[in-house]
Amino acid sequence: MASAAMQEEQVKLLGLWFSPFVRRVEWALKFKGIEYEYVEEDLTNKSSLLLTSNPVHKKVPVLLHNGNPIVESLVIIEYIDENWKQNPILPQDPHERAKARFWANFIEQKITEAMRTALVTQGEQQEKVVKELKEAMEVLEGEAAAKLNDKTLFFGGKNGLGYVDIVLGWICNWVEVIEEVGGFKVLDPQKQPHIHKWMANFVEVPLIKPTLLPKEKMVVCFQMVRQAHLGLAAKK
Ligand SMILES: N[C@@H](CCC(=O)N[C@@H](CS)C(=O)NCC(=O)O)C(=O)O
């Protein structure tokens, strides 16, 4: 018979402290109450563990569960939800689950990736993506207005945080920083009152609050990211 020690699960997360993709995986792990070992990666000198665990994209986050690598933050969150049944992240009802996946994908494609592009571009290219971002925020505001109210504070519904909240949560801590460094503005409390209310509630969640990062420290990192990309683009 296997000993208790042998049966113990090994959960390791390869991360980067200022990555929104990593942070949302940490939120999912904490939400489930899963103990894990966090390993900070140096992306200028990627570890062989990162390169062998995520050979296609070579990016963090990577979750290693008993040595098995799982990559891509949304895939990791779904894996966590399927493996550890306590505190469900995705809705149980298949139609509700499909809708949550739809909005998570919308956020990823139209907001997260667009925000990354806006950070590392300038001029006409940046103006175009900022315009698209504002349109996407309007769509999301419509969904927030339809779904959220004084009783339903989160997209996860009356029971609290869910998949869409965990996927979208990064905007509370990162958008202001990216806007400042990139020199543009997307979030506007007048135009997206429901999203702003959701943000105000999200940052007060006891699990989330202690994980929020100081803005000044992040600004320095994102300035370096922007400069590095603009420098590379200028050389092309
Ligand atoms: N779609 C991926 C994005 C992950 C990602 O872009 N990670 C960045 C850090 S924020 C990274 O590892 N970059 C390394 C590289 O591009 O070489 C996810 O959701 O996990």
General description of the model:
The chain is of the alpha+beta class and 236 residues long. It folds into two domains: 9-83, 3-Layer(aba) Sandwich (Glutaredoxin); 94-235, Glutathione S-transferase Yfyf (Class Pi), Chain A, domain 2, CATH 1.20.1050. It is 57% helix and 7% strand. The chain is built from ten helices and four strands. Strands 2-1-3-4 form a four-stranded mixed β-sheet, with helices on one face. The chain is globular and about 50 Å long. The structure holds glutathione. Residues 16, 19, 21, 43, 58-61, 72-74 line the site of glutathione (GSH). One of its GO terms (cellular component) is cytoplasm.
In short:
With 236 residues, this protein is α+β, with helices and mostly antiparallel strands. It has helices at 4-7, 20-32, 48-53, 73-83, 94-119, 123-147, 163-168, 170-182, 193-202, 215-235; strands at 11-15, 37-40, 62-65, 68-71.
